[in-house]
């Protein structure tokens, strides 16, 4: 039987070592299963290059675990209020800073609380402000938990979602993905509206922003074919561009801007097809094939050759309350036509959607799992030690088998 000293240092207790090994193997298996689970797909997934960097500060690790748990509990409490609200919703997706919150409030509300303000004096550049969140950020997502808003015109439900890859911290990103997954368990039918800032789909310079967005969408939508009729693309923060012809100055029409976006998509599709022909990696080929399918879905036209699933959300051209700006309200009607009438609902199954985690978020998750693992090991070891000591004392009180059998 091990002595108290041997139990304290754990160096001579084979059962304690066995317990520790079992707990570590169990935690490794849980971590691997979580990361292999398609619902939390990693964008880069460079397994060979991973280097887990975890803090050695016990206080910091405990605080991280506590705050993450608190954020998740709060998020689950927030989404519980939507459980019986509606079974069908329009999910508004996009990278952080694409203007999802402003778009949802614009589409669903009366716009009396949305204010257009000039970004700087005499700049001629206007931003939309809703009192709490300003739609000018290009690096941060203010929305941590999905927020469902019922529109004032036909009770259509819109869901403002956390931005792909929340740039505030890995903790925010991990919590947002988890809570979003919980929220969708109560949704039966969805449409998907994807927002992208206009400068990411503007012709002239090839950018990676939209390709990164396609990767995020591919991680979120597992079956592109199933949802191809339920997807629309909206370019946000579109500047008001003018065409000067002699003495006439005219605003470049929505149709012309949309056709320019469609042409950008066509050129991107050609590039993706070329990469597909030269790609040997199966995962990359799947991404390229799905991205081409997405572009085809966006570019569907009606009988008049107009793009049904591409639209734009312009920046305001003047200061004031949005509900009192005629051009903005006219644009609202065409946007409603796109997201309400031109795409249809598809039934949502739990396994239809996934969630992309960045390397930093996966590292944060890994460190939390190992910290929890250490806690479980310590509790298990301490419980084992108490039980062993208890039975050693019990055995010391008996002098023969007869006494023991009477207990």
Give an overview in words.
α3 packs across α11 and α5 crosses α11. This protein has a single domain, classed as Rossmann fold. Helices cover 47% and strands 15% of the residues. The strands form four sheets. Strands 2, 5, 6, 7, 8, 11 and 13 form a seven-stranded mixed beta sheet that branches. The two termini are 22 Å apart. By secondary structure, it is α/β, with parallel strands linked by helices.
Order of helices and strands: HHEHEHEEEEHEHHEEEHHEEHEEHH
Oligomer: single chain
The beta-strand count equals 14
Give the CA-CA distance, first to last residue.
22 Å
Spell out the blueprint of helices and strands.
Blueprint: H1 4-9, H2 14-36, E1 41-42, H3 58-80, E2 88-94, H4 100-108, E3 115-118, E4 126-129, E5 147-150, E6 157-160, H5 170-184, E7 189-197, H6 209-220, H7 224-227, E8 231-238, E9 242-245, E10 248-251, H8 254-278, H9 282-298, E11 310-314, E12 320-321, H10 326-341, E13 346-347, E14 356-357, H11 359-396, H12 401-405
Parallel strand pairs: 1-14, 2-6, 2-7, 7-8, 8-11
Antiparallel strand pairs: 3-4, 3-12, 5-6, 7-13, 9-10
Helix pairs in contact: 2-11, 3-5, 3-11, 5-11, 8-9
Fill in the keyword field for this structure.
7-stranded mixed β-sheet; 3-stranded antiparallel β-sheet; 407 residues; single chain; 12 helices; Rossmann fold; elongated; 14 strands; alpha/beta; disordered N terminus
């Amino acid at each position: 039987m091990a002595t108290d000293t041997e139990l304290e240092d754990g160096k001579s207790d084979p059962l304690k070592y066995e317990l520790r090994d079992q707990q570590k193997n169990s935690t490794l298996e849980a971590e691997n299963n979580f990361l292999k689970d398609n619902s939390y797909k990693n964008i880069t997934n460079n397994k060979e290059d991973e280097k887990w960097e975890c803090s050695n500060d016990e206080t910091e690790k405990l605080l991280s675990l506590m705050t993450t748990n608190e954020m998740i509990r709060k998020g689950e409490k927030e989404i519980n209020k939507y459980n019986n609200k509606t079974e069908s919703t329009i999910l508004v997706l996009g990278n952080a800073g694409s203007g999802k919150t402003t778009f949802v409030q614009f589409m669903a509300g009366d716009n009396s609380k949305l204010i257009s303000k000039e970004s700087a004096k005499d700049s001629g550049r206007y931003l939309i402000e809703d009192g709490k969140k300003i739609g000018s950020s290009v690096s941060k997502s203010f929305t941590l938990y999905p927020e469902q808003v019922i529109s004032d015109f036909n009770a259509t439900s819109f869901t403002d979602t956390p931005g792909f890859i929340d740039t505030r911290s890995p903790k925010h990103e991990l919590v947002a993905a988890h809570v979003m997954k919980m929220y969708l368990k109560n949704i039966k039918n969805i449409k998907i509206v994807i927002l992208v800032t206009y400068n990411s789909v503007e012709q002239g310079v090839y950018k990676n922003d939209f390709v990164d967005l396609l990767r995020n969408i591919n991680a979120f939508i597992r079956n592109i074919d199933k949802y191809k009729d339920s997807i629309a693309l909206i370019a946000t923060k579109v500047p008001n561009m003018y065409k000067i012809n002699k003495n006439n100055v005219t605003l470049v029409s929505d149709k012309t801007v949309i056709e320019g976006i469609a042409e950008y998509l066509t050129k991107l599709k050609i590039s993706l097809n070329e990469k597909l022909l030269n790609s040997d990696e199966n995962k990359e080929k799947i991404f390229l094939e799905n991205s081409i399918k997405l572009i085809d879905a966006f570019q569907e036209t009606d009988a008049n050759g107009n793009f049904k699933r591409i639209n734009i959300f312009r920046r305001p051209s003047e200061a004031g309350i949005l509900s009192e700006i005629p051009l903005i309200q006219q644009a609202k009607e065409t946007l409603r036509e796109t997201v309400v009438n031109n795409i249809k609902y598809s039934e949502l199954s739990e396994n239809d959607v996934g969630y992309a985690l960045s390397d930093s978020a996966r590292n944060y998750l890994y460190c939390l799992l190992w910290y929890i693992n250490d806690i479980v090991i310590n509790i298990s070891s301490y419980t084992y030690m108490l039980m062993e000591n208890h039975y050693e004392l019990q055995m010391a009180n008996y002098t023969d088998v007869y006494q023991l059998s009477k207990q």
